[in-house]
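Saturday, quiet lab. Running sequence design on the structure tokens for the scaffold JK sent over.
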């Protein structure tokens, strides 16, 4: 069930002359306890403030599954992440929220994706679990004296002295940078030459469901460098009168390894004993590795991943079990 994604990325830098935090700074953060860096992270006006980008990346790269994310967020009782708010929406039920109007209180937490067959998929506004854990419900966090609002389309950066402008689409005193995605999928939304995993199943007496899996590389252009992430995600959905929406599966197991230019950056083997991906009661599971770049290209990135999952109900007399094996290699 080994899956491999090899990508060569050429991403234009917003500012090639800027000096980005070094890999060693990120590694130094990871080598110490997150508790020792608590003074580098605070909550201000409902969003998280990171002292610098090395602290941010250290947090993101320390996440090893949902439990780690939830433990980190509990350290900040005055903060609610986008991930947690979306979890609440899924638990409450998106259809019910659409009917009673409470969906309006989740603006900024979810997005509606138009699929190639005309159907709709309700998804979290930020695809990545880790990034959505450090963003508030409006997609905002702070690094140093700069405030960021991040979506899947663009990154908006404004000085903290012009905080109100972070909600503007074209801030007078800020920067707007496009977000670049690379996916292993050929549908209209993801734009590539290969299918992601998208298999539907019909459990006895229950509505249509599906598992989706996708390898992804995303570049969120910050004001001084490229914040780049690569990894894999698998998620489970149920079809409803309003479209597809997240649905808890019985079990989703995922392991992931990321190599950059031949050097291992990230390796989670997914064994429950290590507190990694084997976890019951999830509607998604994913891992990403993040780094900063100021050159014109990232280089050769390889993502290896392995997953299997049990969905809902019985299909042909057996539990709704799915897994996938695939190899995807391409120069981008």
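Result came back. Writing it out in full:
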């Amino acid at each position: 069930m080994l899956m491999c994604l090899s990508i060569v990325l050429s991403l234009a830098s917003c500012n090639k002359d800027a000096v980005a935090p070094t890999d060693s700074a990120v590694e130094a953060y990871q080598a110490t306890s997150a508790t020792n860096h608590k003074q580098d992270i605070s909550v201000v006006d409902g969003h998280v403030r990171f002292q610098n980008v090395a602290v941010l990346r250290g947090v993101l790269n320390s996440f090893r599954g949902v439990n780690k994310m939830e433990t980190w967020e509990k350290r900040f009782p005055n903060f609610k992440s986008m991930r947690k708010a979306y979890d609440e929406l899924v638990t409450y039920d998106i259809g019910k929220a659409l009917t009673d109007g409470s969906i309006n209180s989740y603006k900024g937490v979810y997005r509606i994706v138009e699929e190639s067959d005309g159907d709709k998929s309700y998804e979290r506004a930020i695809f990545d679990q880790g990034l959505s854990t450090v963003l508030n419900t409006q997609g905002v966090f702070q690094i140093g004296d700069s405030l960021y609002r991040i979506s899947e389309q663009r990154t908006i950066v404004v000085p903290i002295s012009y905080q109100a402008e972070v909600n503007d689409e074209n801030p007078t005193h800020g920067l707007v940078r496009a977000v670049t995605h690379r996916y292993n999928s050929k549908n209209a939304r993801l734009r590539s030459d290969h299918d992601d995993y998208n298999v539907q199943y019909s459990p006895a007496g229950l509505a249509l469901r599906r598992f989706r899996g996708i390898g992804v590389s995303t570049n969120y252009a910050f004001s001084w460098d490229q914040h780049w992430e690569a990894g894999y995600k698998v998620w489970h959905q149920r079809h409803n009168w309003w479209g597809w929406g997240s649905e808890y599966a019985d079990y989703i197991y995922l392991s992931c390894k990321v190599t950059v230019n031949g050097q291992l950056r990230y390796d989670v083997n997914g064994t429950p004993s290590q507190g990694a991906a084997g976890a019951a009661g999830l509607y998604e599971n994913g891992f990403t590795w993040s780094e900063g770049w100021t050159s014109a290209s990232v280089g050769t990135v390889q993502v290896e991943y392995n997953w299997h999952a049990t969905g809902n109900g019985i299909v042909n007399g057996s539990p709704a079990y799915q897994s996938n094996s695939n190899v995807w290699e391409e120069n981008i």
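Notes for JK: The radius of gyration is 19 Å. Confidence is low (pLDDT under 50) at residues 1-36, 185-195, 271-280. Ask whether to fix the surface positions before the next round.
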